[in-house]
Amino acid sequence: GIVKITALDHIQLAMPAGEERQARRFYSEILGLPELAKPAPLASRGGCWFGTEKIQLHMGVEEPFQPARKAHPALAVHDLDELARRLEKAGCEVKWDDSVPSVRRFFCNDPFGNRIEFLREGDRFLD
What we know:
The structure is a single chain. 20% of the residues lie in helices and 28% in strands. The protein starts with 10 loop residues before the first strand and ends in a 7-residue tail after the last strand. By secondary structure, it is α/β, with parallel strands linked by helices. The relative contact order is 0.21. The chain has helices at residues 20-30, 40-43, 80-89; strands at residues 11-15, 35-36, 48-51, 56-61, 74-77, 95-97, 105-109, 115-120.
C-alpha cells in the first residue's frame, strides 16, 4: 500500500529537569500557547506540553540536557512585530533574519537555549 504522511502532530524540545516554571513562563505567558494536560502515563516524566488546535509543542526532560542550537521549530505568527516586542520586553534577544526576502522572520532562544524561529503568518519559503 501507499504510505501518506498527512500532518505534523507535534514538536518535542528538550529541557532540564525541574524547570517547568520557566517553560510555562516562556511558552504560555510570553508566547501565549495554552498549557495542555499530559496523558497520565506520561505526567510523572516531568516536562510540560503547550498547544492549540493547529500546533502542539512538547517540552520533555532530558538529562544530561543540551539545547538544540541549530535544529529548531518554526512557528507562524499573526502579529510578528508584537511578538518581537513582547519577547524583548521579557528580556529575550530577538535576531531578525532577512536572508530570504519572501519570509519575514526572526530567531529567539527559549530559556534553555533551544533555538526557535518565528515567521510572519502566510509567508512561505517555497511556493
